[in-house]
């Protein structure tokens, strides 16, 4: 934590905070924060242990006059933060690097910004991750001798070898990975099991290969590039395989490695998205599906960069999922809060946890279309850039489970709620939306913490069994959460319009949540009517039209 410098009146209060991680001097002025207790005479400050660790600046001051300190800092910053420093991070997802041609276009796009010094984060090519997972599932039961003929393995081999050849890159750079991949599948066929730890290891081959091919292509074009496996440069995570969380130690480690390499031998860093290393096991972990977005924002925060760019196959964050409604259009500005709610409540376009590092680092995130680079995209920042729109976007989270729980013991609401939530905590099940009364509570369960993981049925059975010890439980599946993201200071207008639309549509809202979030109103409806709700609401809020079913 750091506290800002406050001067005021006869007594000046400072508190010194020693930085616990490296920051390149280029970000020193705006990042420098220090404070400490001082003598009342304002001339000589009490002994302050001022320790600011950065590569170009290591200052231990026992007694310091602030002017002297700031001068020293400024001197160091000017020499260290010359023109040639990393400026931004650019992330390209699977759809942007799905073929040799796409990789060529991404390379041209990167090189079309001569004043940028980007770190590049890549996902696996196209749908390689899905195919690696499918190959692993097949290997469990196909038999050792049939592993080589698994279709998905053949597809992956062909795609990567063909891409290397088409880009004029020596296929030997991925040969070992392809050999190891086949050996791994044979191992799975012999063990006849496909654990979460093995799933993370197998999917890592996708990003490891795409980044190697791309870095080699840039080097062949005469642009010095250096490939990095994120799990080798300090992406330290929990050991929660398929769903690992970034640990704080990642930030200084990644900053130091990328910064040291950059200052000693500048080259465009090409980093694997999605991957990390478990701090306890040392095994490869993944950050949850879509996790390359998170890789990019972590690097942005680590290096204190000017901007984080997330290149997709759509013109930014749209007013709804374009797969549901073709009239969706791009949203020019979002706040971090709005983007986080969008991502959490189902907008696949951003990883649910990716906004947090950007928000903490106060670094703007720009979502752009790699197929249409002239489109302005969406700029995500801390403050709201005023918009006349009542609503920002409509998000849909399908296949949600709702629980209606009515107390049978007339417990006071405090005891009842506490008991209900303790059961959820014990079973490690998170909830999305909650509505309570004196002796009853309704809630929606997080159906897939990372999109592709479903709550297994026995988790639900265990949950109902525990709850039925204190309540009558009604479990309803195949529900959807329609989230209206916008400025809920205008919630009355939003709700009035939304309920008018849904009434005309003949849809009954089964639960509503508004107030906890300052940017989101969530409505629970049936799965089978959710998409028509999104279309009708979009028509009413963004097209001035009347509801279209
Ligand atoms: N509100 C939304 N705005 C933009 N895209 C969305 C939204 N909701 C869902 N999507 C889907 O997310 C896709 C982009 O996310 P993703 O597939 O992760 O891209 P990439 O693989 O390039 O990172 C789009 O193609 C679109 O179909
Ligand atoms: N390849 C991983 C990580 C990722 O972020 O992919 P994409 O950028 O294509 O969403 C996945 O499919 O989840």
UniProtKB/TrEMBL annotation:
It catalyses: L-aspartate + ATP = 4-phospho-L-aspartate + ADP. Its EC number is 2.7.2.4. GO terms for molecular function: aspartate kinase activity; ATP binding. InterPro entries: AceGlu_kinase-like_sf, ACT-like_dom_sf, ACT_Aspartokinase, ACT_dom, AK-LysC-like, Asp/Glu/Uridylate_kinase, Asp_kinase, AsparK_Bifunc_asparK/hSer_DH. It comes from the Eukaryota. Keywords: Amino-acid biosynthesis, ATP-binding, Chloroplast, Kinase, Nucleotide-binding, Plastid, Repeat, Threonine biosynthesis, Transferase, Transit peptide. Residues 405-481 form the ACT domain. It is an enzyme of class 2 (transferase). GO terms for cellular component: chloroplast stroma; cytosol. Pathway: Amino-acid biosynthesis; L-threonine biosynthesis; L-threonine from L-aspartate: step 1/5; Amino-acid biosynthesis; L-methionine biosynthesis via de novo pathway; L-homoserine from L-aspartate: step 1/3; Amino-acid biosynthesis; L-lysine biosynthesis via DAP pathway; (S)-tetrahydrodipicolinate from L-aspartate: step 1/4. GO terms for biological process: homoserine biosynthetic process; lysine biosynthetic process via diaminopimelate; threonine biosynthetic process. It is found in: Plastid, Chloroplast. PANTHER family: ASPARTATE KINASE, ASPARTOKINASE 1, CHLOROPLASTIC. Involved in the first step of essential amino acids lysine, threonine, methionine and isoleucine synthesis via the aspartate-family pathway. Belongs to the aspartokinase family. This is Aspartokinase.
